[in-house]
Records
---
Amino acid sequence: MLEQRIQQHFIDSADLKYQSAEALSKPIAAAVQAILVSVTSGGKVLACGNGGSAADAQHFAAEFVGRFERERPELGAIALTTDSSILTAIANDYSYEQVFARQVRALGLAGDVLLAISTSGNSPSILAAVEAAHAREMTVVALTGRGGGKMASALRETDVHVCVPHERTARIQEVHLLTLHCLCDGVDSQLLGDQETSL
């Protein structure tokens, strides 16, 4: 019974990825272009999320500053989820809702990109970060699910919305991780040219 349950997780995850491939390829490609415009002009990506999405933000920043699968120059990315002193000071002195927004206002510049990750699209701290990014004339790349929630109406036409068509958090996060890998690979291919990578 347990093995069948585990197998069903694999099947459900694979099914969602197959079903999402066509619908999400266009917004993911648009996100690659938005990030490329920023980093090739001296800009950077500020990434944020809560819980598992915080881990995704850090995962993306690590592969952007370090590397994904190919050698290339370093690219600017900061995960706004990593400095415990900043996070706890802002949460304590203001509110948790402001933990990312204040960092965006402090670090974000016009032309930078905010990578905002929220499976529901309703996280108050992520919505506040989007508002702060807009005030800084940054482009927002939003990764959501469940129809996009409040994030869908908070985004501008110049922003990019990658909304996973599913309700279950675990499945949405699995597609978010694949999306982040697609972003890294897409940027690398645009900067370095197409190349088959060895698995």
---
Amino acid sequence: MVVKVELDTIDLKILRELQKDGRMTNVELSERVGISAPPCLRRVRKLEENGIIKGYRAMLQASLLGYDLVAFCMVGLKQQSDSKLKAFAADMETRTLVRQAWMVSGETDFLLQCVAENLTVFQDFVIEDLTAVDNVDTVRTMLTIRQVKDAPVVQT
């Protein structure tokens, strides 16, 4: 069961600032949100302990590292029992081209965001790996043209 945590305006400011720049020092964060450093650090630690802040990571420019293709796969399964859905989700955890995977409702069962070096690598993944997964019925792909928005996940 998920319990919603009560956040005040300072907590929301902290979250907003950390989404913009998770590397800033506690002193800089405290200045941005208008409180002194010790209570700011306590608030951040409480947000981490409550699971509101899941972690920190560097956002990489994939194309500069040779990953020029971003695509989405809509995957339909033959059977949607709980065990079959969990098995497919666990399999996607092992696939390095799959960067995000969502179980969705509607005409498809999963939406996968894939990042690959090029079209050939992505095609090989779809044809040789994804369609070969037990219980996969259909795979529809969408190649991206350009990312037009990249906002923080949560608006605070």
---
Amino acid sequence: MARGIPQSVFWSCFLSLLSIAACRPASSARYAIDFTNGAPGWFLPAEARLTAQAANGYLSLSLKPPHMVGWALSPFAFQDGQVEVEGTLLEGPSSTDYGLIVHAARGRFYRFAISADGYYGVFFYERGNWRALMDWTIHPAIRTGRTTNHLRVRSAGVEMIFWVNGVEVARVPRGSNAESGRVGVSIGTMAGGDARVAFDRFIAVRDR
């Protein structure tokens, strides 16, 4: 199956990236949330096309249009550190992808995502433009369908390392633009929209 980089993001989300960097991030070196008591401090978009809601012990992102990416940002930021989460496809086609956002600041971020049909990819977004650092690649560590996958990103020094269900799937060089920035979760759609993904057990640790 051929996959591509979604050509659009939500402008309201892009604006939030520019403004949220000025907000005070969480000060503790470790941040963990299971969404049992909501998602305090998170940027949760709410519009007709993209909604994020913390309820029933998880954070869900719903995205209606195809070929789009949306996200929710936590109050936690790091320059060097790691972040992990569990994600599950609840509704939508198997081409739906979901994952982690890191270094979200100044209109740019890195995105690590997997799809429910078994692909993973690493992308860099900056002010309307996507660049594939690791284009969509199939991997047996990904549990396909409406099952739960554990994702982890370690970003420190000169590289970023990516795991799925405890298996390292990729390493990419970390550019000089990997400044301190927020971490969060994301959802993406390919040919089909109307997707919903649940996230749980979000944990982030800051080295500095």
